[in-house]
Amino acid sequence: MTKQNVQPEKGKSADAAIVTLAVLIAAGGVAAFTFLSDQTLTIRVLAMLGAFVVAIAVAAFSPSGKRFIAFGRDSYDELRRVVWPTRKETVNTTGIVMAFVVAVAFYLFFVDKLIEWGLYDGLLRITF
Question: What is the pTM of this model?
Answer without folding.
Answer: 0.52
